[in-house]
Amino acid sequence: MKFLYVFVLLALCRSAAGSIKGMKRLYSDMFGNYSRKLRPLYNQSQHVDVHSRFNLVTITEVDQVRQILHSNVWMNLTWWDEFLTWNPEDYSGIKSIHPPLTDIWRPKLIVPVSVEDRDVFKDETASITVNSDGRVTWFPGANFVTDCKLDLTLFPFDVQTCQFRFLPTSYNSNELKMVSSLISANTQSYTENGEWSISASRAYTTERTFVDSTFSFLYVDIDLERRPMFFVLNVILPVVVLSFLNIFVFSLPCDCGEKVSYAITCLLSLTVFMSIVSGLLPKSSDNIPMVTVYLTCLLGISVLSVVATIFIVMKDPAKVNKKKTQSPLFVIPRFCLLRFLGSRRKVMDEVQLDCKTNGWAGNGNPTGKVLEGQGISGGYCVTADSLCMVIFTVLWMVVSVGFLIQITQ
Predict the structure, then answer these.
(1) Which helix (H) or strand (E) element contains residue 49?
(2) pLDDT band at 71 (very low <50, low <70, confident <90, very high)
(3) How far apart are CA 242 and CA 381, in angstroms?
(4) Residue 139 pLDDT more than 50?
(5) Beta partners for 50?
(6) Contact partners, residue 144, CB within 8 Å, separation at least 6
(7) Residue-range domains of the chain with CATH
(8) What is the reported pLDDT for 4?
(9) Worst-scoring range by mean pLDDT, 98-107, 364-373, 391-400?
(10) How many whole angstroms from its chain centre is CA 351?
C-alpha cells in the first residue's frame, strides 16, 4: 500500500514538473518576439474586432444639481490575437494562460463623457486570459463619473436616459472596430438603487467622423426611472395639505385674534418646503419642473390669501358696529325653480340692516323685515370670508387638477 502512495506522489511530481517546464517554454515561445505595439494580425491591412459586453454593477448616485452619474461598471472585452496561438499537446496540455497586462496588446478605451479621468481602464490588476486558439478575454472595471443631461420637467415622475460612450484611441475604424455582444446592458449582477430603477437599456455601435478620421464608438443607453414615493410623501403631500389648510383661514372670525397669524404660518411653512425642493433641483433654466410651477402657484395662492385676510380684518365693520358677526356683502336670492342643496334657508323674520342697504329689504319695510313670498325669503347672505373661501377653493382645485393632468400625460 505504501508503494502505491509513493507511485502516485512521483506521478504527480512529474506532472507538475512537466507543467512548469511547458509553461516556461510556452511563455518563451509566445512572448519572445512578441510586440504589444503591433495589432495582433498578420495582415495589418485588416481590422481587429473587439467584442464588448457592458456589465452594470450598481448606480451609486445621480447628482441632480451637477447632473452627474456615479456608477460601477465592468466590461467584458474579447478579441483574437493571431500571434498567441499554440497546440496544447506541445506544452503539457496547457490550454490557457494569464499573462501580465503589460506584456500583451490590448485596446485602450477612453470614456469621452467622463467628467474626471477619461482613461478609466488604467487599472493594471484586471484579469486577462489568453486561450490556445488566440482568443483573448479582458475584464476591466472602474467607477464611472459621467455626464448625464437630466430633463426634470416631470420631476419626481421622470425617466432619465444616461449614455455611456467608449472610444478606442490611437486606432480608427479601419484598424479597430467595436462590436456589441449584447443588444442591452447586462444587469444580472446589478444591485438595486433605492432612488432609481432601470426600466430599459440599449447597447450598440456606430462610427463617427472627426476631421479626417472615422472612429468606432460603443454606446450604452440606460433608462433610469425615479422612485417617486419618498418625494411624494415627504414634500408634495405636506405642501398640498398645508395649502388646503390655508383656505380655512376664512372660516375663523375676525375677533379671534389668530386669523392673520394662521395665514402667515401657512405661508412660512410653504416657503420652507419650497427651499427644500430648490435644493434638490439643478440650477438650470432649460426645463422648469412642473412641480416647481405647481408649488409656486400654491405659494402665490397663500400670499393672496394672507393679503385678503389682512384686508378683511382691516375693513371688518363688526369692529365699528360692535357686532359679533360679519356683515354680508350681498345676498343671493333663492329662486323657486332652482333649489340647491345647502343653500335653502327658512323664512327670515328679520334681516341685518346691511342686507336692506344693499337693496334686498326694500321700500316700505324700514325695519328690514322680509315677508314670505317676496323673493328674498330663503336667500343666502354672502360675507367677505365666505366669498374668499369659495374663490380660493376653486383656485386651489384648478391648480391641483391641472398639475395632475400634466404629470399623467
Answers:
(1) strand 48-63
(2) very high
(3) 29
(4) yes
(5) 178
(6) 69, 70, 71, 72, 73, 111, 114, 120, 164
(7) 31-227 (2.70.170.10), 230-318+389-408 (1.20.58.390), 329-382 (no CATH)
(8) 37
(9) 364-373
(10) 60
Find cell 495589418 and name the residue: 44
Residue 353's pLDDT is what? 43
What pLDDT is recorded for position 101? 87
- In one-letter notation, the amino acid at residue 257 is G
Q: Which of 184, 188, 218, 186 is nearest to 201 (CA)?
A: 184
Query: Residue 278: which pLDDT band, with cuts at 50, 70 and 90?
Result: confident
Give buried/exposed letters for 104-128 (b at 16+ CB in 10 A, else e). Answer: bbbbebbbebbbeeeebbeeeebeb
Mean pLDDT of 44-71: 92
What number is the average pLDDT over the span 104-108?
A: 90
Describe the chain by its helix, strand, coil percentages, rounded to 5. 35, 25, 40
Query: Residue 310: how many CB atoms within 10 A of its CB?
Result: 14
CA distance 272 to 264: 12
Name residue 117's amino acid.
D
Sheet of 159-168, strands arranged across: 109-110, 159-168, 213-226, 196-210
Phi, psi at 57, each rounded to 5°: -90, -45
